[in-house]
Design a protein that fits this description.
The complex is a heterodimer.
Chain A lengths: L1 H24 L17 E2 L1 H5 L2 E2 L2 E6 L2 E4 L11 H4 L8 H5 L9 H10 E5 L1
Parallel strand pairs in A: 1-5
Antiparallel strand pairs in A: 2-3, 3-4, 4-5
Chain B lengths: L2 H26 L6 H22 L5 H6 L3 H31 L3 H6 L8 H20 L6 H26 L5 H20 L5 E12 L2 E8 L11 E6 L12 E8 L5 E6 L3 H5 L8 E8 L11 E6 L4 H9 L6 E7 L8 H10 L3 E7 L6 H6 L8 E5 L2 H13 L7 E3 L6
Parallel strand pairs in B: 7-8, 7-10, 8-9, 10-11
Antiparallel strand pairs in B: 1-2, 1-6, 2-5, 3-4, 3-6, 4-5
Helix pairs in contact in B: 1-2, 1-4, 2-4, 2-7, 2-8, 4-6, 6-7, 7-8
Classes of the chains: A alpha+beta, B alpha/beta.
Chain lengths: 121, 421
């Protein structure tokens, strides 16, 4: 078990360093990949997004992109209590880790561009 | 206990965390998600279930330990499930980053960098770091016990942070409810019932003798409800204060060296650490809190001819058995000690051997490992005997190897590990 602890910790540390280096060194791909930032489109700060924290005025951050889900909320299949707490917040992790009964399928991914209003400053 | 029943008991301890982990995975099983996102979800729930199972396995209760095949088996799987859970939980954020990598290295890094994340994710990072430090301390065998124990508590805080991380991300407790309930019960019982000793039995020191250098034997009498230990078992004892004695208050394991008909019991205490060194000054009248009894050592000793091998303080379980009953089958007892000063109970053992024709005593004085070939040459029908080993780990390992070379089947050799870190 000691060996497993040491090996897993080392691999984890190396992997985190590797992701950091890769993000710093590798050039972002061109626009059109879905999450790529466009320098000409609106840019919003996290503070600005945080002001839109109501079910009727609901903005969210997913990755580096900002979405206005105000009109989508009534269509969301789960209990509104599941999604409304994320209004005005960074919901990236919640979006990425939905579980059984609430999977974010490729179909859900395809809906995102419709509600995209810009990128994070 | 039959071999089948014993084998079944040994399956329960690993099965408990595994079942919890698999139940979490079943509840959260992703559908239609990309591969690495699915890996992330599965590793998170499997790791969380194993971690909660590991918490349940740290609860020190005699009935639970007996159900799981002994406290050493229980703690072994506590360590294993906790470490495997840690490795799985490390995989969780890495798998999310790999999933983001498909779109860009920047998105992959955003899934990891704490300063780009929100507080629910900071909780996840705090959980991982606390588990990292706590487990690092757990595997540091040279760390002083008190520092080791303090750092071990970090693991409990890490588990709480991890569960809150999941709760915050889910937006609802969902399947987390049973996990949180079990974790809360296990940690509460461990902290209040075990470490603070609320569930302990109250005893008082009746007498103290010094059978060897740097060793005492204390006879303890119950103040209320009494335990019912049998020879071969051990108890956790925390010594309180007396007129001229101030106890260290920590629970440490001590093997029972005698069981009295009046509910009293005796424990042999060798000065092996700061607390047991301090306890050498123990006096009559001191209050003691006891937990137990634990252990299955010697539980099947009456079945056929025996070979008992004791090293130093490891003589105590055999002494307890010989003090209680005459031997029902032939017993060869090899007692190894470093010097004449360390020869605890030798005179008493010789007197018992003289009175009991079924007991053959071989006491060996000297440092280092003994000449097992010469010793085993004195024991008739060695391969037909059940062997019971109690002593320091290097001695047990060397004896097992020597017994194997002499053709003694591995399933005839019985021993318990007493390293409860």
């Amino acid at each position: 078990m000691r060996k497993l602890f040491i090996a897993s910790t080392l691999v984890f540390g190396l992997a985190v360093c590797g992701f950091w280096l890769a993000s710093a060194v590798l050039t972002p791909p061109e626009a059109g990949a879905g999450v790529v930032q466009k320098t000409t489109e609106p840019q919003w700060s996290a503070e600005e997004v945080a002001r839109h924290d109501r079910p009727t005025d609901c903005w969210m951050i997913l990755g580096r992109e900002v979405f206005d889900f105000s009109t989508y909320l009534p269509q969301h299949p789960s209990d509104p209590d599941v999604i409304t707490p994320w209004c005005g917040k960074d919901a990236s992790e919640a979006y990425l880790t939905k579980t059984k009964g609430r999977p974010h399928s490729p179909y859900a991914d395809s809906l995102l561009p419709k509600y995209r209003i810009g990128v994070l400053k | 206990m039959s071999t089948a029943a014993g084998a079944l008991k040994r399956i329960i301890a690993p099965a408990l965390p595994l079942m919890l982990g698999l139940s979490g995975v079943l509840w959260a099983l992703p559908h239609g998600l990309p591969l690495w996102r699915s890996v992330s979800i599965v590793s998170a729930w499997l790791g969380t279930g194993l971690l909660v199972g590991s918490l349940l396995l740290m609860v020190r209760v005699p009935r639970l330990a007996a159900l799981l095949g002994g406290l050493d088996v229980q703690y072994r799987w506590h360590h294993r499930s906790g470490t495997v859970a840690y490795a799985l939980l490390l995989l969780h954020p890495l798998a999310l980053a790999v999933d983001g990598w498909a779109q860009s290295p920047q998105l992959a890094w955003q899934a990891l960098a704490p300063w780009l994340l929100s507080w629910p994710l900071w909780l996840g990072w705090a959980a991982l770091l606390l588990l990292m430090v706590g487990l690092g301390a757990t595997f540091s065998v040279d760390l002083p016990y008190r520092r080791w124990r303090a750092l071990h508590y970090l693991l409990g805080i890490g588990v709480l942070c991890g569960l809150l991380h999941v709760w915050a991300l889910l937006g609802e407790p969902g399947a987390l409810w049973p996990f949180m309930l079990l974790a809360g019960l296990a940690m509460s019982w461990r902290l209040f019932g075990v470490d603070l000793g609320i569930a302990a039995h109250a005893y008082r020191v009746r007498s103290v003798i010094r059978p060897a250098a740097r060793m005492i034997e204390a006879v303890l009498e119950p103040c209320g409800a009494r335990m019912k230990p049998v020879p071969g078992q051990f108890v956790f004892a925390a010594f309180g204060d007396g007129p001229n004695f101030h106890g260290c208050g920590e629970f440490h394991p001590f093997t029972v060296s005698a069981v009295g008909a009046d509910g009293s019991l005796a424990v042999g205490i060798k000065a092996l650490g700061p607390c047991s060194q301090h306890v050498q000054a123990l006096e009559s009248g001191v209050l003691v809190r006891l937990q137990g009894p634990f252990g299955t050592f010697l539980s099947g000793w009456s079945a056929g001819a025996q070979l008992w091998i004791a090293g130093g303080i490891g003589i105590t379980p055999f002494l307890a058995a010989l003090r209680r009953d005459r031997c029902a089958y032939p017993v060869a007892l090899i007692y190894l000690y470093r010097s004449a000063q360390d020869a605890a109970y030798v005179d008493e053992l010789k007197a018992i051997a003289e009175a009991d024709p079924l007991l053959a005593l071989y006491d060996v004085c000297g440092g280092g490992l003994p000449d097992f070939v010469a010793l085993f040459g004195k024991v008739s029908d060695l391969r037909e005997r059940n062997v019971q080993l109690c002593g320091p780990v290097p001695l047990i390992d060397a004896a097992r190897e020597a017994l194997g070379r002499h053709g003694v089947p591995a399933d005839s050799i019985h021993f318990e590990r007493f390293d409860f870190r």
